[in-house]
Design brief:
single chain, mainly alpha, 53 helices, about 70% helix, repeat, MMS19 nucleotide excision repair protein
């Protein structure tokens, strides 16, 4: 039990008007917590509050009642007895008469009314008493916004939970509600107002009820708000948006059919308004009202609504998009205009309700019939006048909606309009474009009807739409084919090609087993489209349209795996597409074959399997042909197919949940072929084929489970150990240079392929004989084989540490692997040969770090060692290992040229660029796709640890030669660091960033680094958190940027520099005005730049600076 003195302090703090809001809130929370946890009973609280609840001091009484109400609000889920609830109801409903304490009374009543039956709720008689007191004492519209909101919430809750009890109040209730909500303007209160009227309409305003006298009065309140015109102050987050209000008002207006005589005329009148929002809302409300009021009440308005719908569609409908690259599967795609969308939705709703009347109005409509007749006189789309095109599209959309809405309306369209259209399609004459367009809209609407309502498919046999479609199917097929032939004879017109191909596509995509079009037509459609694929690759627009149509058809029929259509598609499209890869005597270019292969393969899992099986055979046959005949054509085929597999087919297999069995088998087949072929990837020193195989291997391994990865790695290791000359059991004897022990192209290719598999494995995947493989990768990366270096980095990244609790599947810990890499001594002989030793006291024995610092006096060897160290460092950095600091210091040491340590400039450049490897996001390895271990914020930590080191070295390094490479390393580090980190230390970093920009402007090889730095600077300039630092350094920033405006080596550098100057113009006038002349003079040079994008930015920048 709470101590009385403690409770008194809380109460005094809350009711004391001198207490701060935070003190009052804390006291309320404390009291509520005591009651909620049973440390204080509600009765004890009321006794303690008695003097505050009954005092004549208005302020204290109001605060006391408010405290009790707020406590009740906090214990709504706490069980209370019926006697206690009744007592509280009596108290609070009486307090509704006390206008000075009204807020507390409202909160208390609302908290009681919201209680649920399981914890004790207000009795019906008490609820009625609250309503009576509410109507008697509260003048809602005279209250402030918050109290009005509480009042309306209370009224809304009473209507929702006690509607049966308060229904007997009759006229008093309706008058009170009208008075409470009339002239309300606050958005939050209006949401409650509309919901209250919606509840009244649903609960009490029935056509057969006795409360019809108040319908007009209630609707008068609603009518004043339509259409909703609501704007909230700029910069204020509004809890209620216009759309919320509009939906709430729509629900209120459509809540009862008794509103029909008032609502429908109002909406029809507003539909003729010039106000765009009024038109949209009118259409939305008409649709909602027609659904709620019922067909009987709406029928008398149909003749008035139809012309308005037709005029709206005609006025606002855009031209159809005849591009296959943008158009969707169904017809010509829905309109993007909201008015048209709503008009068509209303039309569909009215057809569902009043099918016979509205359909007859449309069929007999003079404009519709004139359009159909007029269209028959124009042969091509371009022949049709602009206004006639709009009418044609309007009629097409209307027929589409009619055909897709109901079976009866679809039958009427086919019987009265479709047959009329088809009678104008004379086989011996040239087919008119407009007629085929209307056919497509009707066919697609009919297809949608059957597809979206599967139950209708089994009632089609004797339906008019089915018989008519079956009767005209051959004529339609011939018409669509003929328009394609005509369009090709003249010129590649978009609309004609689109209509012809889209028509064939829709014909082929009616539901399978109840398809009203003969199967022979389906087969002919596939043959026609495939003939375009094979023969018409020179007609790009037609070829791409045909391929897209085949894709949609294949995707559709793949849903019916065992149907005759699916089998026909497989034999006529999928298998022929696969066979095209092996046929060289057709005019279809290889790139087109590959594109067709990828599109057709992604139509379904079974089709993909067929495609993959064919692709595998062609790839290995091409590789064999490359080895046997040195065929460049076969080389190109293999490379493009491998690229297609890795970039398109394999991602689709993963996304669609296909079995990884084929992926594993393909990877294993690559290793089998590599092991059996004595010339694997050897003939091409540019390694295009090897690169393609490596990419396939990486993405294949990465997409498999650990068990499957183990299978692939084991096969790979078997080939590496038994089918090459590496002799892994004697790897320590292999020299570093090729002088005595030369490595064949084949062995190098297999090692690179093996490295690519290792790069992509999961941390839990087992790598056999990993210790020996580390030795091999160390040796091979020093020979310049970059995948070996990347494999070393990946292994280091994924090995478990001794201190880690992670379970490891390998026989080596991270610490042991690092010891192997950094402690293994390499012996450099006097004849420039190197071999691994066991730590003997040979004078030329050195570790990899010695090689990085030039200990071997071999530039190429030093560069390779730095390259390897950078990838090893990246692996350590990403997993958060401290060893990265030592590696970073070694790389920095390679950037510093001293008398004791003279370094080659190329070596220093590679050392500086190693920081780009460390910090950048790599696509080839050590990323999320290839299961790298990535510790959060690793870039931020590395940046924070390295910047003090860089700054110290910059101040100490006297030769400008070393300073250049240090700045290059710094540039890589800060360019690849997240912007938010840079912003936190922008004041100190901006001078360093500007020094990098100044030093790196001279060498053309630095142009990409320069661009990266400018992007970083741009991010600082445009972020509000960088404004202060920019303002302090405005002068030196502008000086630096003006020197880059005419940078000759990269357009993006000039363009970004000008954009940065434009951002600088936003700084305070007094800060940048002294540099105005300098900037304008610099920008004047860019106005004559040879690149248009630079000139455009220069004009914008000059305009901005001229205003200062």
């Amino acid at each position: 039990m709470a101590e009385p003195s403690e409770l008194s302090r809380y109460i005094e703090s809350y009711v004391d008007s001198s207490s701060t809001p935070s003190q009052q809130a804390a006291s309320l929370d404390a009291v509520g917590g005591l009651v909620k946890t049973d440390s204080l009973t509600l009765e004890a609280l009321v006794r303690e509050l008695q003097m505050y609840l009954t005092t004549t001091d208005n302020v204290i009484r109001a605060r006391g009642i408010l405290l009790l109400g707020e406590v009740l609000k906090r214990i709504e889920s706490k069980p209370l007895g019926s006697a206690n609830i009744h007592t509280l109801v009596v108290f609070f409903k009486d307090r509704l008469a006390d206008w000075r304490a009204l807020r507390g009374a409202l909160i208390g009543c609302l908290a009681l009314v919201r209680r649920k039956s399981v914890v004790g709720m207000v009795a019906g008689t008490d609820a009625k008493a609250i309503v009576q007191s509410f109507l008697e004492y509260i003048q809602v519209q005279s209250l402030g916004q918050y109290d009005r909101k509480l009042s309306l919430e209370l009224l809304d809750c009473l209507l929702e939970r006690y509607s049966d009890v308060i229904a007997s109040m009759g006229e008093e209730l309706f008058y009170g509600i009208c008075e409470a909500v009339d002239t309300e303007k606050d958005p939050e209160c209006l949401m409650l107002t509309f919901h209250i009227i919606e509840s009244v309409g649903k609960l009490y305003l029935h056509p057969s009820g006795s409360n019809t006298n108040f319908v007009g009065d209630i609707f008068d309140i609603l009518e004043a708000y339509f259409p909703i015109h609501f704007t909230h102050p700029v910069g204020v987050d509004a809890h209620v948006q216009r759309d919320d209000l509009s939906r709430a008002l729509m629900a209120a207006i459509s809540s009862t059919p008794l509103f029909e005589p008032y609502a429908i005329p109002l909406l029809l009148d507003k539909l003729s308004s010039s106000l765009h929002s009024a038109k949209i809302d009118s259409l939305k409300y008409l649709r909602a009202c027609s659904s709620k009021y019922g067909a009987e009440r709406i029928t008398k308005y149909v003749r008035s609504i139809w012309p308005l719908i037709k005029d709206t569609i005609s006025a606002y409908l855009e031209d159809p998009d005849f591009s296959f690259t943008l158009a969707p599967l169904d017809g010509f795609g829905p309109s993007k205009n909201e008015l048209v969308i709503e008009a068509l939705s209303l039309l569909q709703q009215l057809i569902l309700q009043n099918s016979s009347l509205l359909v007859s109005l449309i069929i007999d409509d003079e404009d519709v019939n004139i359009c159909i007749k007029t269209t028959a006189s124009y042969e091509t789309y371009n022949d049709i006048p602009v206004q006639e095109k709009k009418k044609l599209h309007c009629v097409g959309c209307i027929l589409h909606v009619m055909a897709k809405t109901s079976l009866s309306s679809c039958n009427e369209v086919f019987q009265n309009l479709f047959s009329q259209i088809m009678d104008s399609v004379v086989p011996s004459q040239r087919v008119k474009f407009g007629l085929l367009y209307l056919c497509i809209e009707v066919l697609e609407g009919c297809r949608k009807l059957f597809f979206e309502h599967p139950a209708l498919q089994y009632a089609l046999e004797h339906q008019t739409c089915c018989t008519e479609l079956n009767r005209f199917s051959t004529q339609l097929f011939n018409a669509f084919c003929s328009v394609l032939a005509v369009s090709n004879e003249i010129c590649p017109l978009d609309p004609e090609i689109y209509v012809g191909v889209k028509g064939l596509q829709i014909l082929a995509m009616f539901c399978s087993d109840v398809f009203p079009v003969p199967m022979l037509i389906f087969e002919e459609i596939l043959k026609k489209l495939m003939s375009i694929i094979i023969e018409d690759s020179n007609k790009m627009m037609l070829w791409e349209a045909a391929l897209k149509a085949l894709f949609h058809i294949g995707t559709f029929v793949h849903k019916f795996d065992e149907s005759e259509k699916a089998m026909n598609y497989k034999s006529l499209v999928v298998e022929i597409t696969t066979e095209l890869l092996s046929i060289n005597d057709i005019a279809l270019p290889l790139s087109f074959k590959v594109k067709a292969l990828s599109e057709i393969g992604t139509t379904g899992k079974k089709n993909m399997l067929t495609i993959l099986q064919g692709l595998t055979g062609v790839v290995f046959a091409s590789v064999s042909d490359v080895h046997a005949c040195k065929s460049s054509r076969s080389f190109e085929t293999a490379v493009q197919l491998l690229e297609c597999y890795s970039c398109k087919l394999l991602p689709w297999i993963r996304e669609n949940g296909c079995s990884e069995e084929f992926i594993v088998q393909f990877a294993v087949d690559i290793w089998t072929h590599a092991g059996n072929s004595m010339d694997f990837c050897a003939p091409f020193e540019e390694k295009g084929l090897l690169d393609a195989f490596m990419k396939v291997m990486k993405v294949s391994v990465a997409s498999c489970s650990v068990d499957s990865q183990n299978t692939i790695i084991l096969n790979a290791y078997t080939v590496l150990s038994s089918r090459t000359n590496f002799q892994l059991n004697k790897v320590e004897r292999i020299p570093l240079t090729p002088g005595q022990y030369d490595i064949s192209h084949r062995d190098e290719s297999i090692l690179s392929l093996f490295a690519s598999a290792v790069i992509a494995v999961c941390p839990k995947t087992h790598i056999p004989n990993i210790r020996v493989l580390l030795d091999l990768f160390i040796i091979m990366h020093l020979r310049g084989i970059v995948p070996a270096a990347q494999a070393l980095g990946s292994i280091i990244n994924k090995l478990a540490s001794k201190s880690s609790s992670a379970e490891s599947s390998n026989d080596l810990t991270l610490e042991e692997a690092l010891d192997v890499i950094f402690s293994t001594k390499l012996c450099i002989s006097t004849s420039d040969m190197s071999q691994r030793t066991n730590g003997t006291n040979n004078e030329s024995a050195m570790v990899i770090t010695d090689l990085c610092l030039g200990g071997a006096n071999d530039r190429l060897l030093q560069i390779n060692a730095i390259c390897g160290l950078s990838w090893i460092g990246k692996g350590l950095l990403m997993c958060g290992q401290e060893k990265i600091k030592d590696i970073a210091m070694i790389l920095i040491g390679c950037c510093l040229k001293t008398e004791e340590q003279p370094l080659d400039p190329l070596v220093m450049k590679y050392a500086a660029d190693a920081f780009h490897v460390l910090m950048s996001d790599s696509d080839v390895c050590l990323n999320k796709k290839y299961h790298a271990i990535i510790r959060p914020l690793y870039k931020q930590r590395f940046f924070s640890s390295m910047m003090p080191v860089f700054k110290q070295l910059i101040t100490k390094s006297h030769p400008s030669f070393s300073r250049y490479f240090l700045y290059r390393a710094i540039a890589h580090t800060i360019s690849d660091t997240p912007l938010i980190v840079i912003l936190n230390d922008a004041k100190k970093l901006i001078p360093l960033l500007l020094d990098c920009l100044s030093i790196l402007t001279e060498d053309i090889q630095d142009k990409d680094i320069l661009y990266g730095l400018l992007l970083l600077l741009s991010g600082i300039l445009t972020n509000k958190n960088g404004k202060e630092a920019v303002n302090e350094n405005a002068h030196i920033i502008i000086n630096c940027l003006t020197r880059l405006v005419d940078y000759p080596h990269k357009t993006l550098v000039r363009e970004t520099a000008i954009q940065c100057l434009l951002a600088m113009s936003e700084l305070p006038h007094v800060r940048i005005y002294p540099m105005r002349t300098q900037v304008l003079l610099s920008i004047s040079k860019a106005l004559d730049d040879k690149k248009r994008s630079v000139r455009r930015e220069a004009i914008r920048c000059r305009h901005a600076w001229s205003r200062h």
